[in-house]
Specification:
Mean pLDDT: 93
Strand order of the largest sheet: 3-2-1-4-5-6
Strand content: 5-15%
Distance between the termini: 46 Å
Number of strands: 9
Structural class: alpha/beta
Number of helices: 14
Low-confidence stretches: 1-6, 104-108
Order of helices and strands: EHEHEHEHHEHEEHEHEHHHHHH
Radius of gyration: 21 Å
Largest sheet: 6 strands, parallel
């Protein structure tokens, strides 16, 4: 077990969404739950479900839809691509989670629902409102994550919880989430976990562009990429993108950039998150001087044939950065 208290962990957990993030989260869950626990899973991609079930046949059970997952689970987690998917999974009248909550067999059971997707705050609040109508005893939280695929695999992600630090469910939520990650940060109230995540990814994306430009600029001036990265690490420009996810291939051996930009956080997802952050800023009246230009860079990179579907740090390639510098040393 991790630092989570096994006595506070549920015996039946539902998990919907087995993509690049969801699958390793499920694997970490099953490894850390008490013996005899079961995880009920669903995904529209049948191959992903079959793969996980085959790896853990005694602990993981596949379900036909979200409703069946909810009927069999006390706690349900979702990790989905966009707001439309979240709406469908939770609110579809025939196959959604709400359909199970409003049924006579489960209406009296209080359930914990955690959506780990990164979506717009308006959709999150709409889903929460509808769920409260279906089942007033059910608690729904936004719990987006940060750390990317590497963090999901290594169980080092941070969770940003849309609730107050004094929420009575905090001990249970923390114990559960720490099986899949490190820090669990209550952000104040409903949808504020998402507001925190969008602010974080806005900053991360803008730093990625700046780091790519600064690395390219220094390297073109004649500075070795490793030396330049060590300069940034020792100076006021120090940041996690440069130190851990450096966009220049070969600087950080474990970074996606050093593996052909495979894995990591896809450039299309960063474009989506920057777009959601810019929309949130507009609604709030925030002046984001770099938002529109940053969104433009990620939009163009996500559409470029040599960048699409790759890690978001591929913007270094999009901006014309030198990738074979190490071979020419």
């Amino acid at each position: 077990m991790s630092s989570a208290d096994s006595n506070s962990l549920p015996n039946s957990i539902g998990f919907i969404g087995l993509g690049a993030m969801g699958k390793p989260m499920v694997i970490n869950l099953v490894k850390r739950l008490p013996v005899g626990s079961h995880i009920f899973i669903h995904d529209v991609v049948a191959a992903a479900v079959e793969e996980v079930c085959a790896s853990f046949p005694d602990a993981i059970v596949k379900c036909a839809n979200a409703k069946e997952v909810a009927e069999k689970s006390d706690v349900i987690l979702t990790m989905l691509p966009e707001g439309a998917h979240v709406k469908s999974v939770y609110l579809d009248p025939a196959t959604g989670i709400a359909a199970a909550l409003s049924s006579s067999s489960s209406s009296s059971t209080a359930k914990l629902l955690l959506d780990c997707s990164t979506i717009d705050t308006a959709t999150n609040l709409h889903v929460k409102e509808q769920l409260s109508i279906s089942s007033p005893t059910t608690s729904f939280y936004d719990a987006p994550v940060s750390g990317g695929v590497i963090g999901a695999v290594n169980a080092t992600m941070a969770f940003f919880l849309g609730c107050s630090p004094s929420d009575p469910n905090i001990p249970r939520l923390t114990a559960l989430l720490q099986t899949m990650g490190g820090k669990v940060i209550p952000c104040g109230g409903p949808s504020l976990g998402l507001a925190a995540k969008l602010s974080n990814n806005y900053l991360s994306g803008i730093i990625t562009i700046a780091c790519s430009e600064a690395m390219d600029m220094g390297m073109r001036a004649g500075i070795d990429a490793d030396v330049l990265a060590s300069v940034f690490a020792a100076g006021t420009a120090q940041n996690a993108i440069c130190d851990v996810f450096n966009p220049v291939p070969g600087v950080c051996p474990k970074a996606p950039s050093s593996n052909g930009y495979q894995g990591g956080f896809r450039v299309q997802l960063m474009r989506k998150d920057i777009g959601l952050a810019v929309d949130m800023a507009r609604r709030l009246g925030t002046r984001n001087a770099l938002g529109t230009s940053g969104l433009g860079v990620f939009t163009a990179a996500s559409e470029a044939a040599d960048c699409k579907d790759l890690d978001s740090r591929v913007v270094y390639r999009y901006l014309g950065g030198k990738e074979d510098w190490k071979e020419k040393k």
